[in-house]
Specification:
alpha/beta
Length: about 220
């Protein structure tokens, strides 16, 4: 993942109210470098296209990838944006992660496993953690760049809200979350024995990952 892709990913994720300093640390890029990339001068036409492309991405993501060109065009017109449907289609094809497809985006995965019984929700009556390293939350999100889709798995401490480890890959396989956990343990050995909380995705309920949790002395808890 080059610097330009990292900056694109940060710009995309900050629209979801994530902290820019946290995202820069997560993607291992400098805060000053990111802000410098935003100051690169461009023509008024290019600036307008980029702003319009950003609005299209926001609408696309808000509606969970279900909106195509016609509905995005209508939404932009409702918001007072003077744009043609043809231009919306052009930007969706050429300016970024939103692509014109008959089917909505599907994660690339090679997983095909039998799931074991779900672990109980150990955080059901627990909204916070009293101290660091007691509870870790894990999840996967996908990040759109101009080149392709990337998958980001992160391990966060519930008490401090700090990212303890992360991994980025092009395919959403168990190795994605395994490496994120491995990095978290390498840099924060105090996490041994922490409650591990995730959703019920096939990666998190795979035997491979459950064994990794067991080896590190963790209690597992799913949503």
């Amino acid at each position: 993942m080059n610097t330009k892709q990292k900056h694109q990913a940060i710009t995309h994720l900050k629209e979801k109210n994530h902290s820019i300093p946290m995202l820069c640390k997560l993607f291992e890029t400098s805060l000053s470098g990111y802000y410098s990339s935003l100051k690169t001068p461009c023509s008024p036409r290019k600036n307008h296209r980029e702003k319009l492309a950003t609005k299209i991405r926001i609408i696309f993501n808000q509606h969970k990838s279900r909106y195509g060109r016609p509905r995005i065009y209508r939404q932009l017109r409702v918001e007072g944006e003077p744009v043609s449907e043809k231009m919306v289609g052009h930007l969706m094809r050429s300016e970024g992660p939103v692509a014109l497809k008959k089917r909505s985006f599907r994660p690339r995965t090679t997983q095909n496993i039998a799931r074991p019984k779900y672990a109980p929700n150990l955080l059901k009556d627990r909204a916070a953690s009293d101290a660091p390293n007691e509870v870790i939350l894990t999840d996967i999100t996908y990040v759109a760049t101009k080149e392709n889709w990337l998958y980001l798995a992160a391990v966060m401490d519930l008490h401090s809200k700090k990212i303890k480890g992360y991994e980025i890959q092009e395919i959403m396989h168990t190795s994605l979350i395994s490496k994120a956990l491995e990095k978290a343990m390498k840099h924060h050995p105090g996490l041994t024995g922490a409650v591990h909380h995730s959703d019920r995705g096939s990666q998190y309920t795979s035997q491979e990952y459950l064994q990794q949790l067991s080896d590190n002395g963790r209690q597992t808890g799913n949503l």
